[in-house]
């Protein structure tokens, strides 16, 4: 995979992880309620769920490419439309995505369970991956390239949430995230729309 293409993938994965939502709120809740260790465990468990979805998506797209190229073209264009819709929705979110997280009593086992369940229980996540990864998986892509895509999605997701859990030991981090939630939404929206336009220009 060319470096410029990988950087596009990494940027979208990073902004997807950073976007305020149930996953970020879950990690914040466990960190605030149980301390650094449950927060880190919740983040790593969430990344495992994300990695599983990424693996299944890349695997499934590979089969579609080889057996149904026309269907893959439909998925690609549909995915581009979905990414553009998500981008417009993010741009219109404004400050509505600001986080309101409350701490609750938490332990490592509960944090791991919640991390996996929040990832796997989010039906929009699989749609996001189908839409996103269809822009990066090609018919001639070998398994190292596919493994790189899965590893990128997993490591970026886990790395972000671990950083959040570690940084929350400073009391200024959560207000900082809350105050900038609208900017995260805007940057995410622009990048998703740009990725959708990339499909249109070939």
Automatic annotation (TrEMBL):
It comes from the Bacteria. The keyword Membrane applies. Its main location: membrane. Residues 1-25 form the signal peptide. Keywords: Cell membrane, Membrane, Signal, Transmembrane, Transmembrane helix. It is a multi-pass membrane protein. The chain crosses the membrane at residues 41-64, 71-88, 125-143, 155-177, 183-201. It is found in: Cell membrane. InterPro entries: LeuE-type (IPR001123). PANTHER family: AMINO ACID EFFLUX PERMEASE RHTB FAMILY, ARGININE EXPORTER PROTEIN ARGO. This is LysE family translocator. It comes from Modicisalibacter zincidurans.
